[in-house]
Specification:
Blueprint (H helix, E strand, L loop, with lengths): L12 E7 L4 E7 L8 E7 L37
Antiparallel strand pairs: 1-2, 2-3
The protein binds zinc ion.
Length: 82
Amino acid sequence: MKHLCPHCGTRLHIRTSRAVSLTSRELYVRCPEEHCAYTGKAILSIISTIAPSINPNPLAYLPVGRTRVLPNGTGQLSLLPE
Ligand SMILES: [Zn+2]
């Protein structure tokens, strides 16, 4: 995961984190640039499902994200005579 310091643009380091819910963690971040030394908190959350779990937790409901829409009528000509 790459997140940049909002003050100097250096890549932030995650010092520690704690769970705030089943799908979210609060991250404590620190800028390693010694002339900046910014520290802050961030939230990391799972917001949707791309592929469902083989062994799903019933308490972990996450909506299915946008899926690729297959073309309905492609307009492609048939190669076989009708
Ligand atoms: Zn910084």
